[in-house]
Specification:
seven-stranded mixed beta sheet, single chain, two-stranded antiparallel sheet, transferase, NNMT_TEMT_trans, S-adenosyl-L-methionine, 246 residues, DUF4380 domain-containing protein
Length: 246
């Protein structure tokens, strides 16, 4: 049977295993995503975005650091209670040492990123909510990393998540995203199983072309330094939102 988002207990997301497998070092794929996004953010004036959102933030801090170059307020919207608690600790107490190389790379590629990780995260406000409930046109910029394709096994629901992502920004608002390519249902740690919806650049373009303008979709190859989840790389996106109401 196809697993949908609401079939999953996201409060049980295995944070320690996920971070250990993916974010204790800056992998080549991380560096490629950071370089790609930094090039887009450098085109925006520092502090020019009043309010941005990390759509389904998870425990990944580097997208928040990247957005701090241009955003005066970043809302990290996340449904899983464990991820919310992790984010709140990182913002309140300062990030774990493993995030320091990520911040260093973000700042090296975009000097508008605040000088310390704590200063970058000082602009972050953690919101415990379902991203599908975000009001339309609430932000000037939305960022999403490995969410829509990792929330469901159903392509129609993947498409609905992408529409909600675009809808939450005002018309003309900025969009920055990364997706795992051809991600199947996968495991993290010794036992936990999580949904995946296999997509590729063509499918991302199919979904986003009617919703956006100035759309750019690129691909990076599979990273052999990461666990073998069954994916074939990543799909990276930037664009500007058209008015999406439903």
């Amino acid at each position: 049977m196809t697993t949908h988002n609401d079939d999953v207990d996201w409060d049980r997301w295995p944070i320690a295993d996920y971070l250990a497998e993916n974010y204790r070092d800056v992998h080549p794929s991380d560096a490629a995503v950071i370089a790609h996004h930094s090039a887009y953010y450098r085109g925006l004036a520092p502090g020019s975005v009043a309010r941005s959102v990390e759509f389904g933030a998870g425990p990944n801090l580097y997208p928040l650091m990247l957005a701090s170059a241009v955003s005066r307020r970043i809302e990290a919207v996340e449904a899983g209670a464990g991820n919310v608690a992790y984010l709140e600790r990182q913002v309140l107490c300062g990030p774990e040492a493993s995030w320091l190389p990520f911040h260093e790379l973000c700042r090296r590629l975009n000097p508008a990123v605040p000088p310390t990780p704590a200063q970058a995260l000082a602009r972050v406000y953690v919101v415990h909510a379902d991203v599908r409930d975000l009001p339309p046109h609430s932000y000037q910029l939305a960022s999403m990393h490995f969410v829509a394709e990792g929330a469901t096994e159903d392509f129609a629901e993947f498409t609905a998540f992408c529409r909600a992502f675009v809808r939450c920004v005002e018309p003309g608002g900025h969009l920055v995203a990364a997706f795992m390519e051809n991600m199947p249902t996968y495991r993290i740690g010794p036992a936990s199983r999580w949904p995946g919806c296999p997509i590729d650049p063509g499918r991302v373009e199919e979904v986003f072309t009617p919703l956006t303008r100035e759309l750019s979709v690129t691909h990076i190859d599979e990273d052999p330094t990461l666990p073998d989840y069954g994916d074939s790389g990543m799909v990276l996106l930037t664009g500007r939102a058209r008015g999406v109401r439903q």
